[in-house]
Write a structure and sequence with these properties.
Blueprint lengths: L1 E10 L4 E3 H4 L7 H8 L3 E3 L7 H16 L8 E5 L10 H9 L5 E5 L5 H14 L5 E9 L9 H4 L4 E11 L3 E8 L7 E3 L18 E3 L1 H23 L6 E6 L4 H11 L10 H4 L6 H11 L8 E8 L3 E8 L1
Parallel strand pairs: 4-5, 4-6, 11-12
Antiparallel strand pairs: 1-7, 2-3, 6-7, 8-13, 9-10, 12-13
């Protein structure tokens, strides 16, 4: 048995923030952002919404499409770098919100690679025969860790959630790969609450996201094609058999470089970052849900999911729809 995606769902905040809106608070403009990233707008969460609420709504939509009841879920994994609480986990909050009483629930932190990591983790449980029905979610509220005075990062990111209901079946995931390089972690980082107590005499502080854009770019355009080639070669699949390459939505220039290295037309790289920006662990499942609901995916289609992010981490999944 392998892992088949049987339903998808997504949820994003109502508040739209355009490039022109950002130009009012930092030294930037619409043309500068679009030409360097491909991003035109993004969604930003309000004070009364967050990672778990978006994740729960995406989960409900995925369950409805799959025709699966929450009570029948065996496992829930939420991939997020920005949970609402240190504990309980966001996955446990989703479990409570949707009524998935028998599901084991936990979070995974792999930043923008998170959905891939979570999907592979559920797949391993299925292969072992431990569980049969699961929910995989990628959700992030990056707006709360962004320095809104840093134009190098604040123009890139948005908030959102995407989910997939998965089941152990005979068709689905064909091959997968993951990797990590912690020695390069400083290229994309965010400090958590610092140590502050009566012994240190300091109040805890919270950090903002920092990124070495050029380092991340070089990492992505080298690592992602290698990961894609790995899942194709090790599964005996020719690149021409792939209908779509569904990549982490980070930067349009990254897509162009990856397409050039793989000698694949850009038409095979669907995108939505113009409307949502980089939503970290949510980008792949949000895009997958859009494609699914628009009828772009047909039974038997072979697609590749690939992500990269902080850690540094990366992963790719070859699957049959």
């Amino acid at each position: 048995m392998t892992t088949k995606i049987i339903g998808t769902g997504s949820a994003v905040p109502e508040q739209v923030v355009t490039n022109d809106d950002l130009a009012k608070i930092v030294d930037t403009n619409d043309e500068w952002i679009r030409t360097r990233t491909g991003i035109g707008q993004r969604r930003i969460a309000s004070a009364d919404s967050g990672t778990s609420s978006m994740a729960a709504e995406a989960a409900r939509r995925a369950l409805r499409q799959a025709g699966v009841l929450a009570k029948d879920l065996d496992i829930i994994i939420l991939a997020t770098s920005t949970p609402d609480s240190c504990f309980p986990s966001g996955a446990c909050e989703v479990q409570a919100a949707i009524g998935a009483k028998k599901a084991v629930a936990f979070d995974i932190s792999a930043a923008c690679s998170g959905f891939i990591f979570a999907l592979h983790t559920v797949h391993s449980f299925f292969e072992a025969g431990i569980y049969k029905t699961g929910l995989v979610i990628g959700a992030d509220t990056l707006s709360k860790i962004i320095d809104w005075q840093d134009r190098g990062t604040c123009v890139l990111f948005g908030d959102g959630a995407g989910a997939a209901v998965v089941r152990a079946e005979e068709r689905g995931i064909l091959h997968m790969t993951m990797g990590s390089d912690g020695s390069r972690g400083s290229a994309l980082a965010c400090t958590s609450r610092t140590t502050g107590n009566f012994l240190t005499g300091k109040e805890p502080e919270l950090g903002y996201m920092t990124m070495d854009g050029q380092e991340v770019f070089k990492f992505a355009v080298k690592t992602v094609p290698e990961a894609i080639k790995t899942v194709l070669s090790e599964s005996g699949t020719h690149i021409d058999e792939i209908k779509y390459f569904v990549l982490h939505q980070a930067n349009y220039r990254i897509f162009e470089s990856i397409a050039k290295r793989l000698k694949i037309p850009m038409e095979k790289f669907p995108t939505n970052l113009e409307r949502f920006g980089n939503t970290s662990g949510a980008t792949i499942p949000i895009l997958l849900d859009e494609m699914n609901r628009e009828g772009k995916l047909e039974r038997g289609d072979k697609i590749v999911l690939a992500g990269f992010g902080a850690g540094l981490t990366w992963g790719a999944t070859l699957l049959e729809w």
